[in-house]
Amino acid sequence: MTALTENGPLGLYYEEFDVGQMLVTRGRTVTEADIVQFGTLTGDFNPMHMDAEYCKTSFMGKRVAHGMLGISYAIGQLYQLGVLDGTILAFRELEAKFSVPIFIGDTITIKATVKEKKDAARLGGGMVKFDLRIINQEGKTITKAGITLLMASKPTDEA
Amino acid sequence: MTALTENGPLGLYYEEFDVGQMLVTRGRTVTEADIVQFGTLTGDFNPMHMDAEYCKTSFMGKRVAHGMLGISYAIGQLYQLGVLDGTILAFRELEAKFSVPIFIGDTITIKATVKEKKDAARLGGGMVKFDLRIINQEGKTITKAGITLLMASKPTDEA
Amino acid sequence: MTALTENGPLGLYYEEFDVGQMLVTRGRTVTEADIVQFGTLTGDFNPMHMDAEYCKTSFMGKRVAHGMLGISYAIGQLYQLGVLDGTILAFRELEAKFSVPIFIGDTITIKATVKEKKDAARLGGGMVKFDLRIINQEGKTITKAGITLLMASKPTDEA
Amino acid sequence: MTALTENGPLGLYYEEFDVGQMLVTRGRTVTEADIVQFGTLTGDFNPMHMDAEYCKTSFMGKRVAHGMLGISYAIGQLYQLGVLDGTILAFRELEAKFSVPIFIGDTITIKATVKEKKDAARLGGGMVKFDLRIINQEGKTITKAGITLLMASKPTDEA
Amino acid sequence: MTALTENGPLGLYYEEFDVGQMLVTRGRTVTEADIVQFGTLTGDFNPMHMDAEYCKTSFMGKRVAHGMLGISYAIGQLYQLGVLDGTILAFRELEAKFSVPIFIGDTITIKATVKEKKDAARLGGGMVKFDLRIINQEGKTITKAGITLLMASKPTDEA
Amino acid sequence: MTALTENGPLGLYYEEFDVGQMLVTRGRTVTEADIVQFGTLTGDFNPMHMDAEYCKTSFMGKRVAHGMLGISYAIGQLYQLGVLDGTILAFRELEAKFSVPIFIGDTITIKATVKEKKDAARLGGGMVKFDLRIINQEGKTITKAGITLLMASKPTDEA
Fold first, then answer.
1. Which residues of E touch A31 (CB under 8 A)?
2. Which of A26, B84, C143, E151 has its CA 20 to 30 A from that of C85?
3. CA-to-CA distance for C86 and E59, rounded, in angstroms?
């Protein structure tokens, strides 16, 4: 679906996204190392994520991944599909509801569905809104999110 | 404002947050190393962030930090204030609008204002909604966000 | 060229590669942070990479990236094209000649050409040999390499 | 105890520390990932830390964390209490005795007691010497250390 | 064998290597954290390395380390012996055959044998070709490789 | 000076260290990436290290490396000389005085002098106390430290 051109990979232009279209990413296992790296890099040392002893008496019972880790990895996995390669102009909006935690060893996959399109010719393209679902290895939706991306329009000389 | 007890630091309970209250974090400089680490860890290798040559001809003119880096660092900086230490039960909701990019070398500070409180006794506390503003070294608001946290209620024997 | 299926991205099967076919990757800027991370992770603290003072009197005059960094990033960039997604069975052979160094700030792109194919039905597919060229922002070939991958055969029920 | 001002968090001034005062940090679990990251970053690949096979026949029987990891994390945890925020001028002296090792999975907490204060008006404040104890999840003191920090004096117009 | 001089460690000059000479490195345990760090840094998110669920149904049955991780760590371990310290001029050629995978928790040691020497006076020294074997904790050779290094000649005033 | 045996590198035994003996390490350039990685990994986000704007008005005028980074890198560089390989039993004591800061781009070298030896036959060897000096590229001593290591005795069958 994405093109591999002589100038490198090329994602989809604004005009090439269709409402209802669904994209499914690769899976990625969230390891203890991921939580340590994400927590330290961002400075979020919340004991829910970094202190195994504290977690023994917490509601969850064990360490969980940062909510921001889940969403950030989801965007990364989506990017890796190649559909945004060189055609995304800007990341505009994000909203997310965290319902089920990601535990160490869980594997997440993302389902992204094109929810809405809105022309923004003045900005060189249009807004594409995706519904994202982060799904774990048991098929459970752990986070529902929406992102709005400004995608470039197809160059007219290629139309 | 946060307490340093014999059992470690203790953040604020649901009852101790006041609508209108504002929290200001430390500043953090977003370096080239931060962008490399965030991009590789999350898998978001978008050339906007990782390819300096590509960026020369882009709208921005140079590499920018990931939107998710900005928000993730903001949550980390907020956590480091100590007000959530041991009293946060869960991160429930997030919404963000990205307006101005973070360039390499920019320093970000976060202003978090308590916007709304909502009892959730059944869950052991209540929801606290914060308005977040990520502000750069020129005082410009680069991202507006809202987060909703489930904060624990003050134990009755301490009341 | 790669398919985005309901079960995630799907690369090319052995039968779908053609001798002569060329793949071009995204560019990636090799920063000082990359050299520090690669050198420390692998334990190669050679002063050519890690000691700016030493390099002032060296033949190169300044720090250079590890040869292994170049090849490892090249394989990563190739993987990100999606053509190997779920269809690569094993990485079998590698050969490389390093001619021009990568300096801090250089941006590398990889051109991979299918050089040779060889059936290996007993192993479930066949060997695909690629010629790789790592090219810098000036268009100079800095490393020539060859890799041999065992790619899966197309499932017969899909043929 | 630490103040959250309109200009960000504010630690304690030299005058606000009292001999005998004790600070207790959060806990942090030292994972295998922490040892790999610390060992590679600092270049200390001692097989005690990095070679599980070697350790099977060693006195300890398994990999242990670097002594410097313990002390460095302790300083980090102490910093995160907020008491040094914007009021520390310099880190002057350190001494440490390592008695019990940190194993993978151990959780460390730091108890810091103000041991001594010494005016250093010429330097803009005074020296505060802390006794540090790094304590594991079993309550065992694994490292005793002392650090001397130059803390700023309270601005006179605030006195 | 390597010298520790007043100006730092000093490796072997071209003239000091003998065909047939064997060097054995330290062992290094390849942890889950290593695979996460290597895969993210290089951008090789192949599910063979990063998706534990996918691997359950793969030929290997579980996640394996990247081939490039094995070779890169081998070069790092070889460097740490000190024999190349300040005497290596350039890394010229590499070839490798990957036969047995490295699983999480395996410990690798490298045996490097001087295979061939070739004068290159014009370049200030000569080529030294090493045969490398990466060996796991069971004594199995998992990768055979060859590297060609340009080593400096002994300064005549020291001869 | 260190031996490269058939079983890997072998450092010096307790009996092989001489009072007065001096060891000089390789140099290592401390980059902005090092400070980001050390600060985030250890959790020490002190604005002296992480906030370039704050530093503009500080005594130093710019960001400085963590004192613990300097000492931790020094131990790593010392380890890489090979003299401790397989012969160090434990790291016992550390003391350090920080006088001059390490700025981004500085290159540090370590001079370690054997100061004192003390038999500890009951522990299988003896204590070796080293004086360490961390020296920058201008030859200035930036940190003076002392470390006490428990080194193994030479096996009697080798004596």
1. 32-33, 36
2. C143
3. 12
